[in-house]
Model the fold of this input.
Amino acid sequence: MDSTKSNSIHSDNVEEVHNVPMDVIIRPIPPMLDELKVQSLVNTIKESGADINNVPPIDILWIKGRKGGNYYYSFGGCHRFAAYQQLKMSYIPAKIFKSNISDLRSYLGGSTPDLQ
Done:
């Protein structure tokens, strides 16, 4: 892995970055935020816009429900997500990768919803 890039284990092989509507992202685990880190990200985003060279995209698991619904889950990137929320931005840069209910269950266990 190139040490100059900030990648995640999930999206390491995903190159394409999408601007994903904030309101479709499901974040089922409440974040533990360092407000100074969030504010630093807010300042960086204000200065550079949503430049992914300065603030890396978040990872999103895209899961198709059993009736064809699209569900977009994010578990990491809580400080970046909070910064975009604080700035009242409608979209956030994200790498999307196809996942499945089994992967989701590994995060949520018995709390995994029945995705339609």
